[in-house]
Write a structure and sequence with these properties.
mainly alpha
Length: 934
């Protein structure tokens, strides 16, 4: 209750009287009524009218005359809005007009809202009949305006006020059709607004409540049923499982309202409208059951629809639903009948027929492919069939059941038969869908190609060419098709057919792709010469790219045709001088060429050496970093070439191929030298490679019995000296090389280095190299065996030096005797060599030879029987005795006696020579007696 109603004296003082406010209100309404069609702006007026409402509220309660006057002014305002709306003529074609229209409608809604609020403020007037319904009607229509403007909160507010105004009225007393309609429309409008505001439960409750306000009016039943149908369609569009259930409820409600409304109809046209609405609802109900896979219910809906309408009036969707339901149940015969009923009906649109064919094929799969094809051929007899329809069916056939296997192959076969039919091909003559059909068939063929089903792929590629025009503009497209057909037949090992296709492609568009496919054909035909010529011709094509040579090499390797792979890479290698952009580096190509040569059955060392030298030369020409690469990658490449050269050096050494061995060792030395950077392991490897290289050069000279040139010998000596400087330290005495104890070089390498150095220095200088032998003998690498071998080397061949040989063997003997357990077999061998060398140098009976025998005697004294080789003992004794023969004949008695005594003493050291020693003793006594008597 307001304060003014409790006590008049507490009413606040107001400067405005009722008459003043009503005058103001009327003047503003007159302004609205006076607006011309050229000036319909009410923005300022609506705000002024809005300000009057709170001021009028302060004057409540109003006298009866005031109420009546406000009612009249409210109706004038409402009618003014209607007139303005009728006068407003603007199109909403562009954005600016749409904006003006929106503003105008908002202002109209505001004015209508003010008119409704004025009636609510005035309340009941004695002269006004049904004031609540009239006020509610104003709010209802204003709410519709706000709803149209999508201002759903304002619309809901208006509808709620209208509902409040009519809620207290007993509906049993309402007989006015307009008021009855208002109650029904109000609940439906309020329900629609609640739905838009996502208040779904409220919306459905209001629709349910609306059933109480139908008053047996068929129109109200129809509006309610339509609203249920609209809500059901909205829910169905979401296609969620829960949404399908809810849509079914809404459609069933719509169907129930239709049935009840049909009973209330009085005129035939009303009954027909309900039947049409019921039929539409049943169609959506069946579609919803179809989505929910409730196929029996779908067929029930179809049966009811067919019972309630004539066959000629049947909606196309009924047969469509029936067909899909039968297909879902696997009843293909019934589904086929439904499909044919759709197709033969000329009233049905082409789009529907094509959709039915699509659906039948999609659901029936391979089993329905033939039927779908036949049905479509039936459609060709109808005038309105188009290329677009054929394209759609083809897309369906080719897209259903994507995947490899028998079903997919069958579907593709059907598609091939379909698109190759003359009637279908004729549809696309000059049609804009021709390119699209080509693309569909090409893509399907490409799918089968990826699945390695090359026979099906080839067939589809051929069919796609039916949709390529035979003009000059499409020759590139036809060439592309010929090339891919060549690939298919190559994969099927149909080489001759593939060659025919690629020749056709070459005529249309000679390019590098065709050249490459020709190479593949020659590769499969094992025409090595032709394939190599084809490789070399590739570089002459305008669109040539180096990648095709790489690809050719891969293809050749896959076919184990290594010569062709090598030819491809060699051709690619020759392109580096042309400045072309290459995807591979020069060093990697060389590495692959060498690797392929190594994999060949008959390894050609000369070719391997040629490409290895090329790598060395190119690295020197452009720099190691530029050729091999920088960082870890470059180091890895360089290491590969170094290791490869080393391995080839070892291999050719074992196989005694000394024409190549020295070069490989030299290359290994150079490559490892590039890796060294102070690393001990690489420094030693460089030394080894250099030494082995010189050794191989010397071995080659001896094997081929050819003589190194002076320049070769000097180069070899330089390599030996360089190796010595890397791992040895110079001797202070002779400038030759001695083993460095810290170098870590194997003794065998020190020996080889020494022997090589001796051989080369002797060859170039010609003098004694005794200091070199002394240095080796003083090194830790020196062993008796090495000294023995070195002695043999020094004592044999054209460069033999007896002095050096004698020194070497003497050093070897000394080394043998200082051991705790000398090998007397070796000792005896060295003594025999020393005897021979001393005899050659100083004469057979010289003191030097005698000293060797004397040393041998001293070695034998004290040895056990057999410890010194028996044969060597006999040889020493007999040769010493025999050396006395010549002096005795020459009457050199003292010399003869000395050798006879040596032979006798040696024979006494051997038990098996006792008899021989006794005879020697007698001969020696006889000689002495003869000498004394003379």
């Amino acid at each position: 209750m307001r304060i003014s109603e409790i006590s008049p004296e507490f009413r606040p003082n107001s400067p405005d009287s009722l008459s003043t406010l009503l005058g103001e209100l009327e003047s503003y309404i007159k302004d609205i009524e006076r607006l011309s069609p050229h000036n319909l702006s009410t923005e300022k007026i609506s705000s002024k009218l809005q300000n009057i409402l709170p001021r009028l509220n302060l004057l409540l309660p109003l006298p009866e005359t005031g109420k009546l006057q406000i009612w009249k002014l409210s109706f004038r305002l409402w009618n003014g809005c209607v007139d303005l709306n009728n006068a407003f003529d603007i199109r909403s074609d562009d954005g600016k007009n749409r904006s003006l229209l929106q503003i105008f409608k908002e202002e109209q809604a505001k004015l209508r809202q003010i008119a409704a609020d004025l009636l609510l403020l005035a309340g009941n007037a004695s002269e006004i009949s049904s004031p609540a319904f009239k006020t509610a009607s104003f709010y209802f229509r204003t709410g519709l305006c706000w709803h149209e403007l999508k201002m759903f909160d304002l619309a809901a507010n208006c509808f709620e006020r209208a509902t409040d105004l009519t809620a207290k009225i007993d509906i049993q007393t309402i007989s006015n059709e307009e008021e009855q309609k208002l109650l029904s429309d109000l609940h439906i409008a309020r329900s629609m607004t609640a739905w838009e505001m996502s208040e779904r439960n409220l919306a459905l409750m209001l629709l349910s409540r609306c059933k109480n306000f139908l008053f047996g009016r068929s129109e109200s039943f129809k509006i309610l049923a339509e609203q249920y149908l609209q809500f059901g369609k909205f829910v169905l569009s979401k296609e969620g499982k829960s949404d399908i259930v809810e849509a079914l409820k809404l459609f069933n409600e719509a169907l129930d309202v239709c049935d009840k409304g049909l009973k209330c109809t009085k005129r035939p046209e009303e009954a027909l409208a309900f039947k049409n609405l019921r039929e539409k609802t049943l169609q959506f109900l069946g579609a919803t059951h179809l989505l929910g896979e409730e196929l029996d219910n779908v067929l029930k809906c179809v049966r009811v629809l067919r019972e309630t309408c004539r066959t000629t009036d049947e909606h196309p969707s009924v047969a469509f639903m029936a067909m899909k339901a039968y297909l879902g149940q696997g009843r293909h015969v019934e589904a086929e009948k439904e499909l044919k009923s759709i197709v033969i009906n000329k009233e049905h649109s082409e789009a529907l027929c094509v959709s039915a064919v699509e659906a039948f094929f999609r659901m029936a799969g391979s089993a329905g492919a033939e039927v779908a094809k036949m049905v479509f051929f039936g459609l060709l007899g109808r005038c309105h069939i188009s290329a677009g329809a054929a394209l759609t069916v083809t897309q369906t056939i080719t897209s259903c059941g994507i995947g490899s296997g028998t079903p997919s192959r069958m579907r593709t076969k059907v598609a091939a038969e379909f698109v190759s039919d003359e009637r279908v091909v004729a549809l696309f003559a000059g049609a804009k869908e021709r390119e699209a059909m080509y693309a569909v068939l090409w893509n399907r063929a490409a799918d089968h190609f990826r699945w390695k089903e090359y026979d099906v792929s080839a067939e589809m590629f051929e069919k796609s060419m039916l949709y390529v025009a035979q003009d000059a503009g499409n020759r590139f497209l036809r060439a592309k098709s010929f090339r891919v057909l060549c690939l298919c037949h190559l994969a099927l090992s149909q080489v001759d057919l593939a060659e025919e296709y690629i020749n056709e492609a070459e005529k249309l568009d000679p390019n590098i792709s065709s050249a490459f496919l020709k190479f593949k054909i020659l590769l499969q035909k094992k025409d090595e010469e032709g394939a190599i010529n084809q490789i070399q011709s590739m570089v002459n094509y305008v669109d040539f790219k180096p990648e095709f040579l790489t690809l050719s090499a891969h293809e050749a390797m896959a076919s184990r045709a290594l010569p062709l792979a090598i030819a491809s890479l060699v051709t690619l290698l020759n392109l580096f001088s042309s400045g072309k952009q290459m995807s591979l580096t020069e060093v990697s190509i060389l590495r692959h060429i060498i690797s392929l040569h190594l994999r060949s059955q008959n390894i050609d060392e000369s070719e391997i050496l040629k490409f290895t030298k090329r790598a060395r030369d190119r690295s020197l020409e452009i720099g190691s970093d530029e050729f091999f690469g920088r960082g870890a990658v470059g180091k890895g490449e360089l290491h590969w070439f170094a290791r490869h050269s080393w391995n080839m050096g070892l291999t050719t050494w074992r196989e005694m191929k000394f024409d190549f061995c020295p070069d490989f060792w030299q290359l290994a030395s150079e490559f490892y030298d590039g890796l060294s950077d102070g690393a001990e392991e690489y420094r030693l490897t460089v030394c080894k490679a250099s030494i082995l290289c010189v050794g191989a050069m010397i071995a080659r000279e001896k094997k081929t019995k050819s003589t190194m040139t002076d320049s070769e010998a000097k180069r070899a000596l330089q390599m030996v000296d360089r190796a010595g400087k890397m791992v040895f330290t110079s001797s202070s005495s002779g400038g030759s090389l001695a083993a460095d104890e810290r170098s870590g070089v194997e003794p065998s390498l020190v020996f080889i280095h020494t022997s090589n150095a001796y051989y080369l220095k002797k060859r170039i200088d010609g003098g004694s190299q005794k200091q070199l032998i002394k240095n080796f003998a003083s090194s830790k690498a020196c062993t008796v065996q090495y000294l023995l071998e070195l002695g043999l080397l020094v004592s044999q061949g054209p460069l033999a030096d007896l002095e050096d040989a004698e020194f070497t063997h003497q050093t070897c003997l000394s080394a043998l005797l200082v051991t705790s357990s000398p090998n007397y077999t070796t000792v005896s061998f060295v003594i025999r060599k020393l005897v021979t060398l001393a005899g050659l140098r100083h004469g057979e009976t010289s003191d030097e030879v005698y000293n060797v025998y004397k040393e041998a005697y001293r070695i034998m004294v004290g040895l056990k029987e057999g410890e010194y080789p028996l044969g060597e003992s006999k040889w020493l004794a007999t040769t010493a005795w025999n050396r006395s023969v010549l002096p005795a004949r020459l009457r050199q008695v003292e010399v003869a006696k000395r050798w006879m005594k040596m032979g006798h003493e040696l024979a006494r050291q051997v038990s098996s020579l006792e008899t021989y020693a006794f005879r020697m003793e007698k001969c020696l006594a006889t000689l002495e007696n003869d000498d004394q008597s003379s």
